[in-house]
Amino acid sequence: MKIILLMTWFILSGCEALNSQPAQYHPTDFPVLNAVGYAPIEKQPAEMRSEQILMAMEASKILAYRELAEQVYGLQLNSQTAIQGHSLNNIATKIKVSGVIKGAKVVKAYPIDGFYVTELELDFKLVRDLYMQSENPVHSSTLVVEPVKNF
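^ thats the sequence. predicted structure below, dont judge the formating
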């Protein structure tokens, strides 16, 4: 009888170990990323100076967001080099970045030396807080960011 009870206890405790959750990771330090976008005012395709400034403002903001996406997700690089004889004939390089940036804020935006500059900041504590408030957050220990595979 003791053997049956002992075996039952081992079986049940083994099942309990299978159902238990892994230790949860709760970070205390979060990185803050910074990015800067530059756009030349004079090169904007508009006739009026005020329109050129507005277009440069938008372009610099987009370029700053692209730099943040590069920092968060990395770049997908596809490069081909052709050599004919002993000479470099052709180099073709494509770079792609893809991702969603939430929680970034504009720190500064200003014109300087013919450029419009936008500085962004991305605090990962805010990113985590926004994510945890979403409708169906995945536990942070199981969150996986997959790279973009098609070019």
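Residues 140-151 have pLDDT under 50 and may be disordered.
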